[in-house]
Amino acid sequence: MNNFGIIFGAICLLAAITLVLHSHKKTKKIMDTLDNMLTSAMNGNFHESTFDESRLSALETKFSHYFSSSALSTQNIAAEKDRIKALVGDIAHQTKTPLANLLLYAELLQEEPLSPEAAAYADTLHLQAEKLHFLIDTLLKMSRLENGMITLSPKKSPLSPMLEQVRQQFASKAAEKGLSLSLEQTSVSACFDAKWTSEALCNVVDNAIKYTEKGSITLSVVPYEMFIRIDVADTGTGIMEEEQAKIFSRFYRSEKNAKQDGVGIGLYLAREILKKEGGYIKITSEVGKGSVFSLFLPS
Fold it and tell me: What residues pair up with 182 in beta bridges, in sequence order?
C-alpha cells in the first residue's frame, strides 16, 4: 500500500511538472509572439496575420488588430500631413503676389496729392494690408511648425548679437509709446537657432510693448548649469494668475485686451519654437506691476 502511495505521488508530481513545463512553454511562445509584434510595430513594418485560437491566445489576436489599426492610423496621419503641406504651399504661393500688390498700390496712393479724407482712407488701407500680411505670414509659420515643415538647427552661439538686433528692431516702436527698451550686456552663449529664436524673442518683446503704457522694458540674461534664461521684463498691465496658463495657447485673447491688435498667436509661436530647440518659456506676473517672460535655452 505504501509503495502504491509512493508511486501515485510520483506520478502526480511528474504530471504537475509536465503541466508547469507545458504552461511555461506556451506562455513563452505567446510572449515571444507579442514581443515580435511590438518590435514590428515599433519598426513600422507590422503586417497582420490570421491566427488560430487553438495556437495563439485571444490576446494575441487583439494585439494584432490593434497594431493593424495603429498602422492604418499612422498612414492616414502621414497622408493628412502631406495634404496640409500642399495646402500651406498653395496658400503661400497664391497670397504672396496679391498682398504685395495691395501694399504697393496703397503706398502709391499715399504718395498722391489727396484730400485729407482720401489720405486717411489710403493710410487705413495700407495699415490693414500690413496687418493682413502679418496675419497670413504668422499663420503660415504656425502651420509649418506644427506639421514639421520647418527644421531648426540649434548651435552654440553668443546671445549678445541676437539680443542687440532685437533691441534695435523694436527701439523706435517702444519710443513711439514713450517707453525705454534696454539691454543688459552679456557674454553668455547658448545652443539655439538664431533665426527662429529671434522670431520667438521678437514676439515676446512685441507683446511687452503692446501691453505696456508707461515705464520700461528690459532684456537680460541669467546663466544656469543646463539652461540659459533670457528675461523680458516690462512694467505693463500684468496678467492675472488664472490667465497665465492660457496665454501660450493658440488664438487665446484675454477679454480685457479685446481692443488691442493681434490674434493670439505670437506667444504660442514663441513656445513652439523654444520647445523644438529643447527649451521652454514661463511667466511671472503681478497685475498692475508688470510681467517677466523667461525664455529658457539649452546652454
Answer: 218
Question: Hey, is 214 helix, strand or coil?
Answer: coil
CA atoms of 144 and 81, how far apart (whole Å)? 10
CB 295 within 8 A of CB 232: yes
Between the alpha carbon of residue 117 and those of residues 16, 108, 120, 121, 124, the distances in Å are 101, 16, 5, 6, 11
Q: Quote the CA–CA distance of 52 and 55 in Å, as a whole number.
A: 5
Q: Report the alpha-carbon angle 238-244-246, nearest 5.
A: 130
Q: Among all chains, which residue has been given the C-alpha cell 543688459? A: 184
User: Consecutive sets of 10 residues in the chain, 299 residues long: mean pLDDT of each?
Assistant: 63 72 73 70 57 52 63 66 67 75 86 88 86 77 72 91 95 93 94 93 93 94 94 92 84 65 78 92 92 95
> Roughly what angle, to the nearest 10 degrees, separates helices 58-111 and 116-146?
160
Its pTM stands at 0.63
167: nearest Cα among 107, 228, 218: 218
Strand pairing of 180-183 and 216-223?
parallel
How far is 278 from 26, CA to CA, in rounded Å? 45
Helices (H) and strands (E) in the chain, counts: 7, 7
What is the DSSP track for 238-295? ---HHHHTTTTSTT---GGGTTSS--S-HHHHHHHHHHHTT-EEEEEEETTTEEEEEE
Residue 177 and residue 213 in contact, taking contact as beta carbons nearer than 8 Å: yes
